Amino acid sequence: MSERYDILIIGAGISGLSMAHYCRQQGLNPLVLEKEERVGGSLHSQRFDGEEAAFWMELGAHSCFNSYGNLLAMLEDCHLLSRLQKKEKVGFRLWVDGMLQSIPSQLHVLELLGSLPHLLTQKKAGQSVADYYAKIVGPRNFAAVFSPAFDAVICQPSATFPADLLFRSKRRRRDIIRSFTLPGGLQTITDALAEQAGLRVLTGQDIQTLAFMNGEFIVSTAGGNAYAAPFLCLATPVDVAAELLQAAFPELARLLARLRMVAVETVGVVVRKEVVNLPLLAGIIARDDCFFSVVSRDTVQHPCYRGFTFHFKPGLLDHAGKLKRIGQVLGSEPEQLVWVASKANHLPALTVGHGDLIRGIDRQIVGLPLALTGNYYTGVSIEDCVARSASEFSRLRDLRGFGSGGHGSRQAVEQ
């Protein structure tokens, strides 16, 4: 027997939950299945107990801006706009040879001035980050400042990343704070989406099989449960999507498997303010070190504590080695760390030609009752994820049978 829904959504990160939000607005009855015991995916706000209960820090995505139009519209639907919290204006520093340095101090000014005219002639399309920006800022500036800064943004080596997917201009909402978070961190967004009336979200659901038979998707979990729906949305990392689709859609799975993934080993620490000598800062960009970046909670200051999230390069240090390096950067001893939280983040490693591959994937799903969404389409930002979900929802809405709400309540049916 299977429980039947209007659409099954696998993945309860921002991509899957935004798709569920659009479905609920249409009057559909979606089911969201999540492998982890928590919702949010890469929106992971670590919250603490005891004396530190009011403190939180981000272990995943850190940034939201007033240019995130699709996200803001969804926050408005969830009555969250009034809860937006402004982030303090503190700057970034570079970590060079074991010391904090200002960014301007590391620039070769004459090279920069001589290279900037290339902005008028260079086009991002078809170029890697290294090819494009080394011409714009000069090769020495790129190596000294811009390459490590871009690595820090995407938590992976950025040199081969498509230049046109790194930063894209978006229209800003002038009535919204330029850079914001929410009380409790950005996971507040996915928590609110998961708690919408009429939405069922099941965590701890390890998908074992996915089949497509007679116009129905059948999903079975390791717990022995089965779920059926005429529509399916995969909002998982791309390698998971490729594995799940291997049996039902092998050619589509083959294309998805061409997209590489990279691991980021994240460690967040909380310390009392008096034990850290670092100035207030938004974050630290590392050059030639074992970590890409440090993101600070100083943008939302707390009277007693400071928080720092280190994004380490994979496979270089064990846990003890990471804590030692954290102590060296913060100037603190291991026993002075009030809290330590670790997380493995997995991100897509996009390369030049990514657009052609995505267009091939999209051709495969034309006319299918299958949606694919996530951070591997048009970029890795939160807005990129929500925009893809909105686009895929619109595509499904145009298919026959979607949006009719014909299965508005859970039903048990023969598998």
Q: Can you walk me through this structure?
A:
With 415 residues, the protein is α/β, with parallel strands linked by helices. Helices cover 29% and strands 25% of the residues. It folds into three domains: 181 residues, FAD/NAD(P)-binding domain, CATH 3.50.50.60; 120 residues, Polyamine Oxidase, Chain A, domain 2; 63 residues, no CATH class. The chain is built from twelve helices and 21 strands. The strands form five sheets. The chain has a seven-stranded mixed sheet, sandwiched between helices. Helix 1 runs parallel beside helix 12. It starts with a strand and ends with a strand.
**Which segments are poorly predicted (pLDDT under 50) over 5 or more consecutive residues?**
406-415
Distance between the ends: 5 Å
Number of helices: 12
Instruction: State Rg.
Output: 22 Å
**Mind summarizing the main beta sheet?**
7 strands, mixed
Rounded mean pLDDT is: 93
Keywords:
415 residues, alpha/beta, FAD/NAD(P)-binding domain, Polyamine Oxidase, Chain A, domain 2, seven-stranded mixed β-sheet, five-stranded mixed β-sheet, 12 helices, globular
Task: Give a topology summary.
Layout: E1 2-4, E2 7-10, H1 14-25, E3 30-33, E4 45-47, E5 56-58, H2 69-77, E6 85-86, E7 92-96, E8 99-101, H3 109-115, H4 129-137, H5 139-154, H6 163-166, E9 180-181, H7 187-194, E10 200-202, E11 207-213, E12 216-221, E13 226-229, E14 231-234, H8 238-244, H9 250-256, E15 260-272, E16 283-286, E17 291-296, E18 305-312, H10 319-330, E19 337-349, H11 354-365, E20 370-372, H12 382-397, E21 411-413
Helix pairs in contact: 1-7, 1-12, 4-5, 8-9, 9-11
